[in-house]
Amino acid sequence: MSLQSHLTGLAGKAFADIGLSSDYGQVVLSQRPELAQFQCNGAMAAAKLAGKQPREIASAVAERLAEAAEIASTEIAGPGFINIRLADEALIEWANKTADNSHLGYDTAGEPLTVVVDYGGPNVAKAMHVGHLRATIIGDSLARLFSFAGHTVIRDPHFGDWGFQMGLLIAAIEQTIPGLPYFDAEATEYPGESPVTLEDLQRIYPEAATRGREDAEFADRAREATVRLQQGDPGYRALWRHMKSVSEESQRDDFRALGVAFDLWYGESDVHDRIASMVDALKDSGVAEESDGALVVRVDQTEDNREWPPLILQSSAGGFLYSTTDLATVEMRVKELGADLMLYVVDRRQSDHFTQVFRAARKGDIASDGVGLEHIEFGTMNGPDGKPFKTREGGVVRLGDVIKMVQDAALDRLNEAHLAEEYPQQEREAIATTVGVAALKFGDLINNRSSDYVLDLEKFSSFEGKTGPYLQYAAVRIKSILRKATEQGLSTGAIIGPAVDVERELILELLNLPPVIDRSIDLRAPNHVAEYAYTLASRFNRFYDACHILSEPNPQQQASWLQLSTWTLAALERLLDLLGIEIPDRM
Ligand code: ARG
Predict the structure, then answer these.
(1) Nearest to 398 by CA among 254, 252, 262, 257
(2) Which residues of 392-409 are buried (b: 16+ CB within 10 A; e: fewer)?
(3) Which of 268, 350, 374 to mutate to test the pocket of ligand 1 (most atoms within 8 A of CB)?
C-alpha cells in the first residue's frame, strides 16, 4: 500500500467516526510543502451534504486524525482544508520499506486486464509524418504505464494497408506503366523485385489522391482496383505486397529510431478473412442494412444532439472501408486476443470515425459492454506559426527528418554546455541521439495530450527547465555521485533523519509516486508522470545542494543519503522509462 492510501484510510475512518462517508477522506500530497505536507479537502463537500459548517466537520475529523500515532499534527486552513503533518518516525519507516522495493511502492493491479494499445498507425506508401509522431510517443508511454501496472499489454500499430488508398495507388501505377505483369490477366508469375521504391510511392500517392478527388473516372477505376485487390486478384495482390514491404521497411526504421517496438505488426488487411462472416452476422441480426446500394450500420441514438451518419460497411462498388476493417479488428481483438480494453491513440480528427466504430461494435454485439473501447485523442504538433508543423517549403515533414532535427539540436546543446566533450566520437553521437529523442518525447508528453503545442527545438533541447535533457542530466548526475561513492568504498545504509527540510520534502515526494502513476493511468495522461519526474528531480537537486553527501563526516548519515540518492535514481529511471526516455551512462 502507498503512504497516500494509508493516510486516506485514516482520514476516511475519521469521517466515518462522525457519521459521514469515508469517501471524503481522500488525502493528497500538498503542492506547497512550505505550507503543508498533506491535505484532505473532503470537509467542504461533506458539509454541503450534511448541512453543516465545513470548518466544524474539518475540526472534528482533524482532531480524530491527530490521535493516530503516525500523525504529528493536523490543522485547519481556509474554509475547511485539513493540513496533515506526518511524524518523522513514520516517514522514515515508510522510506525504508519503500526505498529498495523493486516496484517503488506501487502495487500492481489485482485483476490484470488484457489491454490492446493501437498506436502509430502508419500507412502503406506514405512515409510516417509528424501526425504519427504524437500517436507513437503517447501510445508508447501508455503501453509502458499499463504494463508497469501489471496489465498484459499488446501493442499493435494497425498499419493502413487495405482501403481505397491502395486502389488509388494500383490505378495510378497501372496507368503509368500498363505493361507490368501485375496487370496481365494471363500472368502466373511475378517479379521478386519491387517495381516501385518508397520514393516512387511517395510521389505517386499524393498525385493519385488529388486525381481521385478531381477526376471522377479515375476515382471509379481506383474503387474497382480496391475491390479487385480485396477479392484476391493475384497480380494486384503481388504488387500490393511489394508496396507494403517497401513501406514497412522504412517505417520499422523510424520506429526503431524512436525506441518503439510493437508486439504485433498487424494491418487492416489482416482481418480481411473475418469480414465476410462478420458482415453476414450483422445482416442476419438486422444491424446492417442497405442504403443506396451500400451496406451500412446506423449509429445514431435518440439522445444525440447532432447527426450521426451511418457507418459504411461495404461501398456500392463492393469495397470494404477503413471502418469495416476497424470493426473486424475489434472482433479479432476480443475473440483472438481476449482484449478487455482497447485504447486507440489517434489524432483528434478521427473522433467521429471512432464514435461510429464503437457504436457499431456495441450494436452488433461485437464488443460487449464489459470491453472498454476508448479513443485516446490528442491535439496537433504545430510549427512556430501556430499551424500544423510543416517544412520550410510547406510540405509534410517526415518523421525521419524530425528525428534528425532534434539530434542536431541536442548536439549543439551538448557543445554549448561542454558536455561529453572528451568522449569518443561514437559515444558523443549516441548521446546526442538519446538526448534528441528525449527532448522530442518529453516536449510532447509534458503537455496535456488534448492540447496543441508548438515544436520548439530550442526550448525542448535545453538542459534547463521542464525538458527531457534536464531530467536525463539530473539522472546522469546521480549516477556519477554513486559511482564516485563506490570508488571511495562507500555504501548505502538505512535511511535516518531527516536532517533538513529539503530532505524531508524529497522523501515525501518519492513516496508520492504510486498515486501519480495511478492518475496517469486513470486519465490515460502521461503528462502527470512527466510533471512529477520534473518535480522529483528539482527536489533532489535542492537536497543535493544542501547535503554534501560525499564529504559528509558522519558515516551513518552519509549511508542514509546515499540510499536516498539510489532511491531517487531508481525512481527517475523508472519514470523516464515510462515516458520512453533512455538515460545515458554519462554525459
Ligand atoms: N492509418 C491511420 C491513419 O494514418 C491510423 C490508424 C489508427 N488506428 C485505427 N485502428 N484506425 O490515419
Answers:
(1) 254
(2) eeeebbbbeebbebbbeb
(3) 350
Q: Full-prediction pTM beyond 0.85?
A: yes
Helix (H) or strand (E) segment spanning residue 116? strand 114-119
- Mapping DSSP to helix (H, G, I), strand (E, B) and coil, where does residue 313 land? strand
Amino acid at 92: I
Select from 539, 514, 543 the least CA-distant residue to 528: 514
H-state helical runs in 40-183: 42-50, 54-66, 88-99, 130-148, 164-176
- C-alpha of residue 327 to centroid of ligand 1, in Å: 12
Query: Tens of pLDDT along 470-499?
Result: 999 999 999 999 999 999 999 999 999 898
Cis status of the peptide bond prior to 498, with omega within 30 of 0? yes
**Mutation choice for ligand 1 from 119, 123, 269, 374, CB with most ligand atoms inside 8 A:** 123
- Of the pLDDT bands very low, low, confident and very high (cuts 50, 70, 90), residue 444 is very high
Interstrand relation of 27-29 and 341-345 (parallel, antiparallel or unpaired): unpaired
> Is the confidence at residue 127, as pLDDT, over 80?
no
Residue nearest (by alpha carbon) to ligand 1 atom 12: 121
Q: Is 585 exposed, middle or buried, given 0-12, 13-18 or 19+ CB atoms closer than 10 A?
A: exposed
The rounded Å distance from CA 225 to ligand 1 centre is 21
Longest dimension (CA), the chain: 90
